């Protein structure tokens, strides 16, 4: 998915040290695609927490009636230096990209797109979709891998029953289940559905930091209580992660984890780089390749693309390190 903000902030992100047992990240609402467009709830990045492992961006959206919002209608747009992780709870999205992929994003199935040196893709909810509900996540590629060749992977994880909880492990390993999807730093991604009042204790890697993004219900985790769209953060050092659903209703969450990235990254619009010069070069090349319908960095555009998204204007001032 694109970051459709017309005046995106430049963000310099780094792994932060945490001394508190946990942290509650509250989302900000970001409108996408104009007055009838979708509104997403963004928990990463923000001032108090830029990264969780290599997870650097988290949007939670829906459930949206597409007759009111128009659904997801994101024309061709670029990415660099990251992997996009698309996860749906309801609805269906059609994906096309410049490495020749044409795929559908469906509930319970992960689509992971590696941008690397550069890729462009489009995302449209299908005509059969009446409700759209899901999460769009980005993973920052470490310096040694950020210019790798672009790629696309799809995986439908098996459903696990663990003490009555429903678990789907789409990245990394948990509860004896391992995803074959390739990442370039140690990561964990899983959907977990809890019964009302359920207490679930998970053995986790103590080298990882973890975030619990709540989709539905209310969950107690890492000493904080998180409701829909909120994210509970647990720093590295713990070998166990406890999830407790509210007594009156069940809950569904996304568990995101990883080893701290240990690198500073610059995010602006849909690009990740390491400097102002990186971002300016990516923007200039995208604008040039838009005019030519493809090129050496972002690839040949699919014939189905009638239009692509123009990059916003860079700020008048030099993009600076913050935080």
TrEMBL record:
Bilayer-crossing regions: none
InterPro entries in the cross-refs: Pirin, Pirin_C_dom, Pirin_N_dom, RmlC-like_jellyroll, RmlC_Cupin_sf
Pfam families from the UniProt entry: Pirin (PF02678), Pirin_C (PF05726)
Entry superkingdom: Bacteria
Stretches assigned to the Pirin N-terminal domain: 39-139
Ranges for domain Pirin C-terminal: 190-290
Gene3D superfamilies, alphabetized: Jelly Rolls
Family indicated by similarity: Belongs to the pirin family.
Protein name: Pirin family protein
């Amino acid at each position: 998915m694109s970051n459709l903000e017309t005046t995106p902030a430049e963000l310099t992100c780094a792994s932060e040290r945490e001394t508190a047992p946990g942290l509650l990240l509250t989302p900000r609402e970001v409108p996408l695609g104009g007055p009838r467009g979708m509104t997403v709830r963004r928990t990463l990045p923000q001032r108090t927490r830029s990264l969780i492992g290599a997870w650097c961006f988290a949007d939670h959206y829906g459930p949206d009636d597409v007759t009111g919002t128009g659904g997801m209608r994101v024309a061709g747009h670029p990415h660099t230096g990251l992997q996009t992780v698309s996860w749906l709870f309801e609805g269906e999205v059609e994906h096309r990209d410049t490495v020749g992929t044409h795929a559908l994003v469906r509930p319970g199935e992960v689509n992971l797109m590696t941008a690397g040196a550069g890729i462009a893709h489009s995302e449209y909810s299908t005509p059969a979709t009446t409700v759209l509900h899901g999460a769009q996540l980005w993973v920052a590629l470490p310096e040694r891998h950020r210019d790798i060749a672009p790629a696309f992977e799809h995986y439908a994880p098996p459903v696990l029953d663990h003490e009555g909880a429903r678990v789907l492990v789409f990245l990394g390993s948990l509860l004896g289940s391992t995803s074959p999807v390739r990442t370039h730093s140690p990561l964990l991604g899983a959907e977990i559905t809890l019964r009302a009042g359920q207490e679930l204790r998970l053995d986790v890697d103590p080298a990882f930091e973890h975030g619990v993004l709540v989709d539905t219900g209310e969950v107690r985790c890492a000493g904080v209580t998180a409701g829909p769209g909120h994210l509970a953060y647990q720093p590295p050092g713990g070998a166990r992660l406890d999830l407790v659903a509210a007594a009156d209703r069940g809950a569904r969450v996304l568990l995101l984890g990883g080893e701290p990235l240990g690198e500073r990254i610059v995010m602006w619009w849909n690009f990740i780089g390491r400097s102002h010069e990186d971002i300016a070069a990516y923007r200039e090349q995208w604008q040039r390749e838009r005019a030519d319908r493809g090129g050496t960095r972002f690839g040949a555009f699919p014939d189905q693309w009638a239009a692509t998204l123009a990059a916003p204007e860079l700020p008048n001032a030099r993009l600076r390190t913050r935080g």
